[in-house]
Amino acid sequence: MRVFVTGGTGLIGSAVVRELLENGHDVVGLARSEGSVAALREAGAEAVRGGLAQLDVLRAAAESADGVIHLAFSNDFSSPEALAAGVAEEAAALGVLGETLVGSGRPLVTVSGTPWVPGRASTEADPLPLDGPVGGRGRSVMAALGLAERGVRSAAVRMPRTVHNQGDGGFAGLLTQIARQSGVSGYPGDGTQRWPAVHALDAAALFRLVLENAPAGTAWHAVADEGDAVRDIAAVIGRRLDLPVKPVPEETYGPLGPIFATDQPSSSAYTRETLGWEPRHPSLLEDLENIQP
């Protein structure tokens, strides 16, 4: 299958590109810079220059592909306005990708976060939040899944709060970054709130399985660790960086503060049973031991 991938040089995307190539697919990656072009070519993929805002580039690449995996996002969480701009850019891009595939029966695999449900681990059957800081992403994903009724084999892989590799990535990576800057390995609230996690290489395997096999209009959970307490995550970070570990104000984390403070464990039991996906790489707490002082 010839697969067009957006975000193919990021932490998750580079693992997805590798997984696809190793399993016999051809990959064309969207590249915003010459550095991204070089990285894709070095991996064995083709590259097309452009970003999410260049809708004509997205349309042409999707038209010539047998399937699309969308992973790109601005990842600018510096302010509510920056986050909203990134959500809007993604919505327009995903809309074009989906419309291009209408009536073709080709797969469109997109990405979201796992939902959170008070008092229990969320499952694949739970709806995404459509309000709040990232509600716009949920609405875009639901629109993409709705294209199942228009001849697109659309599916969503829901990612946990931390997708990690070699001790970096996701919410835990942000905690590490802030700890280095502030001199404190902090966490919001009492730290008992739980975050799910997955190794990037395990997530990549699920993206491939969904691309190849998932029915139209379905959602899947890339969750390996159902929920690690945030203070346990902060404790490993503090030990690795030789920094004190203590609670800090929710506002420390900007527009992500309310999400950081939420208990949000998640299950992937249905995904594992249905698609035969089984995580094989280190857990989050094990992988954080790779953080360099």
From TrEMBL:
Residues 3-75 form the NAD-dependent epimerase/dehydratase domain. GO terms for cellular component: cytoplasm. One of its GO terms (molecular function) is aldehyde dehydrogenase (NAD+) activity. Residues 256-293 are annotated as: Disordered. This is Nucleoside-diphosphate-sugar epimerase. It comes from Kribbella jejuensis.
